[in-house]
């Protein structure tokens, strides 16, 4: 009986258990079990059917969260993946948005892609100081870039339109005008899905492991054979590319680009997404964006419930909520919502057993 029980348990584990890996291909798979693959296909089908199930306002909020998660994922790769700090993430969003604003309408998909390329090229240059400095000094260098970008957005009128900004026509794909959030959702999916799947695969590859080594100890990583120049510059470039694509999509959603969309507070907001969600994971980017971006929507709902006379005070409480969330997770759960979810998942995996 023992031999039969052991054989059945081993067969079940090989077929369904996530912990069993026999090849590197299985270890890098997005879904390594039949149930996991089924859940993945159901999830993708749900994404395609989502516009037909929700209202325009609900789709608008989902678009905000998805684009925010895409931008946050870029910062996750930089901060959580390679251990490099940045306070200029909003500037890269602005670069992508302004670049995309010059290729709007029928060229909107090309404009979004070009916005990511331009932001990635600037991110490659911004990553050069990381070869000599790190920590708070690197944060100051990226903060200086944020202020420089803010000045350029307000005064480079030939490219940005100055304080008034730029307006965009509705994006078009194959002659179809994406005028409503339900229709724009498919343009966002066109960029978001490949970039999310690429980031998940990247973290388990040789380049992702090199980033992790640089994050833990860059001198030890260099001794072990990691090319610090390539690792740090590629992290900055890819992070900026993600932010640039997100900025281009944000411009299509807002149909306008102004400097007030990309101040320093937005960079801090994305840093809050990294801390709250859990640095260095794709799921952390989604959870962090979901929590941080839904706070203003909840406050807007409270304003509607209590009256417009409370709008100023509730707007101030939004900053208090951001600061409180960051402190709460730093003290109680440094790994963010991903760490919290991991503990809950591990508990129910062994429940009702005590081990």
UniProtKB/TrEMBL annotation:
One of its GO terms (cellular component) is plasma membrane. InterPro entries: ABC_transp_permease, LivM-like. The keyword Membrane applies. Keywords: Cell membrane, Membrane, Transmembrane, Transmembrane helix. The chain crosses the membrane at residues 35-54, 61-87, 107-128, 135-153, 184-203, 235-256, 268-295, 315-332. It is found in: Cell membrane. This is Branched-chain amino acid ABC transporter permease. It comes from Thermus filiformis.
